[in-house]
Amino acid sequence: MLLTLLITVPLLGILGITTGISYNLLDTNRIKKTALSVSILNLFISLIIFVLFDFSHNQFQFVQEYHEISSFDFYLGLDGLSIYFVLLTTIITPIALLSNWNSIKENVRSYVIIILLLETLLLAVFLVLDILLFYIFFESILPPLFILIGLFGSKNKVRASFYFFLYTLIGSLFLLLSILTISSIMGTTDFDALCKTNFKYSTQLFLFYGIFIAFAVKTPTIFLNAWLLKAHVESPLGGSIILAAIVLKLSLYGIFRLILPLLPKASIDYTYIIYLIGVITIIYASFSTLRTIDLKELIAYSSVSHAAVYLIGVFSNTIQGIEGGIALGLAHGFVSSGLFICAGGVLYDRSGTRLISLYRGIAQIMPLFSILFFILSLGNCGVPLTLNFVGEFMSLYGVFERLPLLGAFASSSIVFSAAYTIYMFNRIAFGGYFTFTDKYKANKSDLNKREFFILLTLVVFTVVLGIYPAPILDGLHYSVSSLIYNNIFYQVMI
C-alpha cells in the first residue's frame, strides 16, 4: 500500500491543482504551495518506508502485485539498492520546486504539474519489478522534460529540448531491442524470475551491447554527452536539478537491475573497455571543464566527470567499488543540486549573467552565500568529511583492485576536480572588489530565508553523511554482497 501511495500522491496533487484551476479556486501562490505540500508529503511517506525497511536480507519488500493489467502484471517492490534512489527522488523534488519559487512567473500551473509528474515517473522507474515496465517508465520521463526545457528554458531552449529528446530516445531503442530479446528467449520480463536464469555467453554479449549503449547515453560518456551540456544550460533551474540529481542516476540504477545480475560474464569480460571509456571521459570532461567560462556549463561538465567515476566503480565487481559508486551517485545528487542553485538560483537571478569573469569579490557582500558555496565546492572536489570523498575513494579503490593502471589514470579526477572547482570559487568569491559593468546591474543582497534553508539542507546531507556514512553503507552491504556472490556463481555455471 505504501508504494502505491508513493506513486499516486503526486498524481492526486496534479488532479487537485488542475481541478482547482478550472474553477478558479487557486491563485499562483496557492498552486506552488499545494505542489510543495504534496512533494513534502511524499518525502514523509518515503521516510516511513525507510524506517520500516528490513536491511537484514536482500529480498524485495513491500511487494504489491496488480494482475490483469493489459497484457502484463504490474509489480512494485523495494530492495536495499533501490530504496536510496527513492529517497533521493523524494528529497530533490521539493528542492526543485523551491528553487524556482520566484523565477517562474508564467505558466506556473504547467511547471508544477510537470515537476510532480516527473516525480511519479521517476519513482515508478525505481519501484517496478518488470524490465518491460522499467523501459516504459525509463522513456516516459522524456516528454515531460522535453516540455519543461522547451517551455521554461532560456533562448536556445527548443534546440536543447530536441537534442535531449532525440539523443536519449535513439539510444534507448537499443535497450528496447535487448528487452524484447530477453522476453522472447525466457518468456517473461519479471525481474525476480530473470535473476534466476542463465543466458548463454554469446547471448549475453549481444544483450550487453544494446543495454550498455542506452546507459552510456544516459550516463553520459565520451562522444555521447553533447545533449547534456545543452539540456543543462538551457533548462530552468528546477529542470537542471532533476536532470543532474536523478535522471543521470537512472543509468546507474539500470546497471544494477539489468547488467550485473543478468549478464555477469559479459560485464566481467568487458570491464577493461568500460574502464577505458570511463577514463577517457574523465580526462576529456575535466579538460573541457577547465576551459569553460560559463558557470552553469562548468557545473554541467563536472557532472560528466563524476558520472564516469561511479560508472567504473560499479563495474569493479568489488563490494567497495559498487557501494562507493552508489554513495558517489547520491553525493553528486546533493552537491550538483546545490551548485546549480548557487549558479542559477542566486547569482544569475541577481546579476543576469553566467560568465565567471564578471563575478569577483562576492564574499565581501554575500558572506553567508560564500560559506555555503565553499562547502559545496569542497564536496565537488571530493574533500574528506564529505560524502563525495567517501564515494569517490571507494569507487577508485575498487577500480585499483581490478585494473591498477587505469585506476591510476582515473584518479586524475581528484586533481582535475580540485583544479576547476577551486578556480570557479576563487574567481567568484575573491579576485578583487565586487564590480559590474553597466550592462549587468546586480542585486547585492545576501541569501534570503528560502535560499538559505535549501542550500543548508544540501550541505547538511553532504557533510553529515560524509562524517558518518554508515546509514548508506550498512544498508547497501547485504544487497551488494548478494549481487557479487550471484555474479560469481553464474560465471562458474557458464
From TrEMBL:
Substrates-to-products reaction catalysed: a ubiquinone + NADH + 5 H(+)(in) = a ubiquinol + NAD(+) + 4 H(+)(out)
Single GO biological process annotation from the record: ATP synthesis coupled electron transport
Enzyme Commission numbers on file: 7.1.1.2
Subcellular localization(s) per the UniProt record: Membrane; Mitochondrion membrane
InterPro entries noted in UniProt: NADH_Q_OxRdtase_chainM/4, NADH_UbQ_OxRdtase, ND/Mrp_TM
Domain NADH:quinone oxidoreductase/Mrp antiporter transmembrane: 130-416
Membrane-spanning residues: 6-26, 38-55, 75-98, 110-128, 134-152, 164-186, 206-229, 241-260, 272-291, 298-319, 325-348, 368-391, 403-423, 452-473
Keyword Membrane listed: yes
Keyword NAD: yes
Membrane disposition: Multi-pass membrane protein
GO terms of molecular function: NADH dehydrogenase (ubiquinone) activity; NADH dehydrogenase activity; ubiquinone binding
Gene Ontology cellular component list: mitochondrial membrane
Annotated keywords: Electron transport, Membrane, Mitochondrion, NAD, Respiratory chain, Transmembrane, Transmembrane helix, Transport, Ubiquinone
Domain of life: Eukaryota
Physiological role: Core subunit of the mitochondrial membrane respiratory chain NADH dehydrogenase (Complex I) which catalyzes electron transfer from NADH through the respiratory chain, using ubiquinone as an electron acceptor. Essential for the catalytic activity and assembly of complex I. Core subunit of the mitochondrial membrane respiratory chain NADH dehydrogenase (Complex I) that is believed to belong to the minimal assembly required for catalysis. Complex I functions in the transfer of electrons from NADH to the respiratory chain. The immediate electron acceptor for the enzyme is believed to be ubiquinone.
Protein name, UniProt field: NADH-ubiquinone oxidoreductase chain 4
Source organism of the structure: Glarea lozoyensis (strain ATCC 74030 / MF5533)
